[in-house]
Amino acid sequence: MADLRTEFLGIKSPNPFWLASAPPTDKEYNVVRAFKAGWGGVVWKTLGEDPAVVNVNGPRYGAIWGADRRLLGFNNIELITDRPLDVNLREIKKVKREWPDRAVVVSLMVPCEERNWAAILSRVEETDADGVELNFGCPHGMSERGMGSAVGQVPEYIEMVARWCKAHTRMPVIVKLTPNITDIRHPARAAKDGGADAVSLINTINSIVSVDLDTMSPVPSIDGKGTHGGYCGPAVKPIALSMVSEIARDKATRGFPISAIGGVTTWRDAVEFMTLGATTVQVCTAAMTYGFAIVKELISGMSNWMDEKGYRSIDDFVGAAVPNVTDWQFLNLNYIAKAHINQDLCIKCGRCHIVCEDTSHQAITAKKNGNRHFEVIDAECVGCNLCVSVCPVANCITMVEMTSGTDPRTGRKIDRHYANWTTHPNNPNAVKAAE
Amino acid sequence: MPAAQGRPGPDIASGRLAADDYARNFADLHPPLDAHEALVESDRCYFCYDAPCMNACPTGIDIPLFIREINTGNPLGAAKTIFDENILGGMCARVCPTETLCEEACVRNEAEGEPVKIGLLQRHATDKAMVANAQFYKRAAPTGKRIAVVGAGPAGLACAHRLAVYGHDVVIFDAKPKPGGLNEYGIAAYKTVADFAQAEIDYILSIGGIAIENGKRLGQDFQLADLRRQFDAVFIGIGLAGVNQLHESGEESPGVEDAVEFIAELRQADDLANLKIGRRVAVIGGGMTAIDVAVQSKLLGAEDVTILYRRGKEEMKASEFEQDLAQTKGVTIKHWVRPRKIAVKEGSPVRIECEYTRDEGGRLKATGETFEFEADMVFKAIGQKFEPGPVPGLELVGGRLKVDNERRTSLPGVWAGGDCVHGGQDLTVAAVEDGKRAAESINRALSRQ
Ligand SMILES: Cc1cc2nc3c(=O)[nH]c(=O)nc-3n(C[C@H](O)[C@H](O)[C@H](O)COP(=O)(O)OP(=O)(O)OC[C@H]3O[C@@H](n4cnc5c(N)ncnc54)[C@H](O)[C@@H]3O)c2cc1C
Ligand SMILES: Cc1cc2nc3c(=O)[nH]c(=O)nc-3n(C[C@H](O)[C@H](O)[C@H](O)COP(=O)(O)O)c2cc1C
Ligand code: SF4
């Protein structure tokens, strides 16, 4: 049986599945239920200074649904915890004492002054929590008050606050990054330069999920008005994956510990983040959609996958995909693949044909001998993967690499040597291959 | 093959069909889901809180979890989730009347009248695990305790497996030549094709620590007292050996057969073409066995098959799904009738005389109005009963063994479960739950010693 035990900045947890700082971790009651269900750790809902913030007293969430009302994207206009600091600290201390094997990290957000950070850090230390996470991420409400993403969008501030925090606490410091920036590497480098121990990402993305067309108000609507919120859930996973990979392969931050967040719903999502360099993953929306019991699926799925692949511990695969993330210019232009439709699996919906015909390369037939029949025409197929993306049957259309012969589309012989854009004749800046 | 068609008098013959037809008729009733179907179907599960399906499963399988595991490409995880509660999850996926259990409770019924196909998803996962021979359980350190299990049906097998997991040694005694109980001898052939019952037993036994002794009948080859002396605990899972009687004239004639016995013969037949079946078949009863024998008669090539049931559609023990199945296979179901006389010629039934019945304030009354029709074979499927002979001294309620919630009988050191105990549902899955509960109780009792 695979060993899922995780150590992140010296913080131990029985598995890499933590709950992200959000409503599921706002109270002792929720957190204890989570630990009973099997979660490896929590990042407590962000604490701030008293008096506590207030939340709207109406809808604070909105959603995007796929077919069958599956929740795909989730949006919120909630602020940090609206409970008194004392109450939270007391509960954190109690939970950590009663659940010593689980990770308990405390998320913090206070005004951008050294004494404010120093003050709250000393109080958190008394709880024996395992570490702190600096919330530089929330895109709404708090940012208008000069906190949250207002800090996270300025690398110099990140570095400064991280440095204060390291100076005022012995606890590990994780900086939680906002994705609402142009290049995630800059805030990550700043966190590292400021002495932080790790980064976690992503927080939510600026969003308006929909507009009520009767009231002309953005949703969620508070008395006829709405505001942008923070987007999360399955829809944001690709953005988060990319950002995690950027930090993992950036020279300046390579090897810097990462706790990945953003749309983790199944074991596979979690593993993907970990192969791109994350040691732990954090989950919010999936728990808020299905309840804490999903952790059982995360554990069994990851563990069976590890057994199947022969990985004994998570260190065996963390970062395994990082070397394979590269820049476009280094992709092998001699690699040629063609779509192939498995006629036994094909249900003949014709979606592949119409998208290729209308919007791509006219490389899929609609008929053969007068009958409805969908087949790839290799002489036209550029191998773009569009048909695979729209086919309703998994594995019905696959991309098959050509390893010999001639590409019927270009008439060129298959060349198995690696050659990329940097040396391509069409590239005005091509470097001449050394003779 | 029109064997002596239209012959007056008893018309009982084998080989009524072409070889291909037998194969087609007795193929899987519900073919397994392929990968795409399993994905689409598992996608429909809402992962309900306190899931009604799970509460409706007698073994309490965590259904939403295993469906989610299938959906995330983790079929082995799904299989383990199933086997953790029901080691015969493969058989149950095939034979459970899901339409009155988990699938009846699915909230999708409320939403759009179409439950998630839980049974087929369960089969998908358990098949994957069995094909891969994935073993999920290791025996605990040997305890040195020995337990005798009498009866290798679902109750006995489930009990034995759980005890083996705890490190105890188990010997199963069964009177029949093959283990499996009604899984092997009773379940309709089209529900468990390709010798699945024996394959499942091999899979279960691979845990080790379980020996099966077939051809050993309690009360004849050995006594309960011997077992109590030689073993640390005893589990009784001997099912229902007795058959209810009709008390109609003609009942003893050849051609009036016990349905369960006939099905056993069918299940053990090397070649179904050798099995004799009447051209016109009458079945007396209203339960699962009546449906099974009627449908299988039809599939063997009987021309007219009629089920005679003394009450109405709602009172039939066979689920609506089973009744519909019989009717689509061409079986006629007559309600509110009872057989009165079976006319016999040359030692075989030829005609059956029936009388209409009606409900008068909850009591069944014969109306005096009769009709008759031709029948070459008559099956009795009016229920089985418990034979207490092999287990003298055990207290009974309602003609079956009395057990408590932990499946303890009135004798210390003796547990029981499955069809032989009072208060059960007479279902495979209920027998499995009994065996599991008894094993837990036995383990607790033995660890206290
Ligand atoms: C025709 C038929 C069809 C059915 N179809 C279904 C169905 O589709 N779905 C469903 O859920 N349920 C069905 N059932 C019910 C289901 O088969 C039983 O509820 C289940 O098999 C009970 O399990 P058990 O272990 O208690 O007993 P059994 O399966 O009856 O096993 C008892 C075992 O004990 C052995 N035994 C008996 N006496 C002795 C003795 N003195 N010494 C040693 N061994 C002994 C027997 O040989 C047998 O192997 C059906 C039943 C019948 C009769
Ligand atoms: C309702 C809600 C409240 C949140 N509150 C906080 C918060 O207080 N502090 C914080 O750092 N992140 C907060 N987040 C962001 C999450 O921790 C997480 O970064 C984000 O939701 C992405 O993960 P997910 O896709 O698994 O939901 C909140 C998210 C939601 C949905
Ligand atoms: S989930 Fe529904 S019931 Fe619960 S607090 Fe929110 S709006 Fe109210």
Work out the helix count of chain B. Answer: 17
Q: Looking across the biggest beta sheet of chain B, what order are the strands in?
A: 4-3-2-5-19
Segments of chain A where pLDDT lies below 50 for 5+ residues? none
Largest sheet of chain A: 8 strands, parallel, barrel
Brief overview:
The complex is a heterodimer of chains A (435) and B (449). By secondary structure, chain A is α/β, with parallel strands linked by helices. Chain A contains 12 helices and 22 strands.
Secondary structure: elements and pairs:
The complex is a heterodimer of chains A (435) and B (449).
Chain A: E1 6-8, E2 11-13, E3 17-19, H1 28-37, E4 41-47, E5 61-65, E6 71-76, H2 85-98, E7 103-108, H3 114-125, E8 131-135, H4 149-152, H5 155-168, E9 173-176, H6 185-193, E10 198-201, E11 205-207, E12 210-212, E13 217-219, E14 229-232, H7 237-249, E15 258-261, H8 267-275, E16 280-283, H9 285-290, H10 294-309, E17 337-341, H11 351-359, E18 367-368, E19 371-372, H12 386-390, E20 397-401, E21 406-407, E22 412-413
Parallel strand pairs in A: 3-4, 3-16, 4-7, 7-8, 8-9, 9-10, 10-15, 15-16
Antiparallel strand pairs in A: 1-2, 5-6, 6-14, 11-14, 12-13, 17-20, 18-19, 21-22
Helix pairs in contact in A: 3-5, 5-6, 8-10
Chain B: E1 12-13, H1 19-25, H2 35-42, H3 52-56, H4 63-71, H5 75-85, H6 89-95, H7 102-105, H8 108-112, H9 118-131, E2 146-150, H10 154-165, E3 169-174, H11 182-185, H12 196-205, E4 210-214, H13 224-230, E5 233-236, E6 242-243, E7 256-258, H14 259-268, E8 277-278, E9 280-284, H15 288-299, E10 304-308, H16 320-328, E11 332-334, E12 337-345, E13 348-360, E14 363-374, E15 377-380, E16 384-385, E17 396-397, E18 400-401, E19 414-416, H17 428-448
Parallel strand pairs in B: 2-3, 2-5, 3-4, 5-19, 7-15, 9-10, 9-15, 10-11
Antiparallel strand pairs in B: 1-8, 6-16, 12-13, 13-14, 17-18
The complex binds flavin-adenine dinucleotide (FAD), flavin mononucleotide (FMN) and iron/sulfur cluster.
